[in-house]
Amino acid sequence: MHSFRFASLLLIVCVAGCSSKPKLSQISGNVSFNDKPIPAGYVSFTPRVEEGTQGHVHLFMVENGVYNSAKAPEPGIPPGVYNIEIGGYDGKKIPMFYQGKQIFNPIQDIYTVPDGVSTKDFVVPKSAGDNVKIQPTADY
Description:
The protein is mostly beta strands. The chain has one helix spanning 2-19, and strands spanning 26-33, 36-37, 40-47, 58-63, 66-68, 80-89, 102-113, 117-119, 122-124. It has one domain (24-129): Sandwich (Immunoglobulin-like). The longest helix is centred in the N-terminal third of the chain and has 18 residues, at 2-19.
């Protein structure tokens, strides 16, 4: 009888522990360059494994200066420390430039995503607009 109870308890604990997914945070904010919202772009979050953050890269699109993890195809992001990359475009779609032409060179930063819902604004330094290396954003 005791072994049946133990087996049942073990099964319940395993099912409860194995089926739970890590709690995701939600993050949103504004991205500006030259004191204006960027028309189009992205903010990517790459986990800093050396800091203990696990998972995959999360890419949030910027539209009219705003990004929001809740509106991504896979909403949310695990809390932790991330390498950030921000790219900005003029938003005028033309062949080979899906989001338009680059308005600054991508910048990098490090940010810790907290638990829960948070806001993080990014201000791209003016120096990122120096010697911009225009690269196509599409293959067609």
